Amino acid sequence: MMADSREKALVEELYALIRYVYHKKLADEIIQAFEDAFASRTTPEERITICEQWIDFYRAHRYRKAMRRRRPTSQERLTPCSACGYPVSHRHHLWDVATHGENRVTVQLCANCHELHHLMYNTLARDSERSRKLVLHILASPRLQPQAVQQILGWCRAIMQYEVENGWLETHKVSDRWLEEKLHWADYLRRVESRV
Ligand SMILES: [Zn+2]
Ligand SMILES: [Zn+2]
């Protein structure tokens, strides 16, 4: 590519990044500052070097912006828990933000169900012993609504199934045997049934 057209492509990429990262007014100001700097430079090589450096910088910004979770709206906070019906909830990302960025694959869960979801996921997908102890302790409580627990496990396993299909998770972690080994699920169901 000739220096001229390469420079043009880099400048376009740089300005597109700035427009993505900042709101319009600020983006316009920053772009103007670059225009001024470019006008005062003599060689295309210098301009290309500047562009490359700033493109790296703004790419990192773009990445951080994409990874930023947005604050839940009041309406979302006022939505009852999808598992147990508690009147206020958090916005839980079924697709985690670290991997997928801010996304719409979310479910509204109260603080307790939210925590249980994360603990169950960490137990089954990450094989966390620390989480497993807590889940077993929670499951032993008669205060839990069995339907809510089943629902939470269902979401956990659905998301794990999706991860298995994408090759991100070992297949055996979605098996009933694994669930049995980690959470003694059959025992839990038996205990719950004997209560009614
Ligand atoms: Zn709940
Ligand atoms: Zn969450």
List the keywords.
196 residues; mainly alpha; 2 domains; 10 helices; 4% strand; elongated; binds zinc ion
Please tell me about this protein's structure.
By secondary structure, the chain is mainly alpha-helical. The protein folds into 2 domains: 3-67; 74-195, no CATH class. The protein has 10 helices and 2 strands. The chain has helices spanning 3-21, 24-40, 44-67, 74-77, 97-100, 111-124, 129-139, 146-165, 176-183, 185-195, and strands at 90-93, 106-109. Helix 1 packs parallel to helix 3 (44-67) and helix 6 (111-124) packs across helix 8 (146-165). The protein binds zinc ion (ZN) (2 copies). The site of one zinc ion has 4 residues, from strand 1 and helix 6.
How would a crystallographer describe the biggest sheet? 2 strands, antiparallel
The coarse silhouette is: elongated
Uncertain stretches of 5 or more adjacent residues: none
Order of helices and strands: HHHHEHEHHHHH
Number of distinct beta strands:
2
Tally of helical runs: 10
The proportion of residues forming helix, as a percent range, comes to 55-70%
Question: What is the CA-based Rg, rounded?
Answer: 25 Å
Distance, first to last CA: 76 Å
